[in-house]
Amino acid sequence: MKDLQFAIVLCAAGFAARGQDLNGIWQALNTAAWDLQDHTGQLGVPPGQGVVEGNEIPYMPWAAAKKKENFASRKTADPAEANCYLPGVPRATYMPYPFEIVQTPKLVAMRYEFAHATRNIPMDGSPHPDGLPGAWMGDSRGRWDGKTLVVDVSNFNDQTWFDGAGNFHSDMLHVVERYTPIDSSHITYEATIEDPKVFTKPWKISMPLYRIVDPKATLLEYECVFYLQEEKFKAAPFRK
Q1: How confident is the model at residue 9 (pLDDT cuts 50, 70, 90)?
Q2: Which of 41, 56, 115, 197 is the most buried (most CB within 10 A)?
Q3: Global confidence as pTM
């Protein structure tokens, strides 16, 4: 056990020396989870400034109409907040819940308070496997670009939204994330998004992430499915 603890400390020290230490609990402090673009407030939705570069999402005409349909039915149709499915990428990063990064030389793991979502990101240079079925969180592969963690994500299904406003994608979604430490308590997060079925060109979001420095910080259990069943059925059988 002591050898393992020493190895973990030595590994963390190596990342810190290279400016690559992302270990810790982080959270976005913005309103992107409600709407990626500029939006006014309404009941249950705080007003916010957009995180989309240029504040425009380049939808194809049919997709722009679909987005409007999603917005109209968002209170019941949102896969994450209304139905407790996994939030997908990049949405998991800016949900209004914290997430944790744990890194080793060969693997970066991310776990999220919302819906117990997790990601394992190989850092060994291996490519995305062929023939994978589409997944809610996609398949992630990472590498270092200086002190920036670059994560290539593909193999998505078409079931997640980017936010609670109905912004969506197809199973051709491809996301490239960049996590760049600014200092010991801040990361610049960027995600470039492309989907040739839905968008006319790639587009980008960016935002700061904040380390939670409370020494007691931990991820708690947000049991979304349990809460949803209680709301829908009032007396879920496991309450008895």
Answers
A1: very low
A2: 115
A3: 0.90
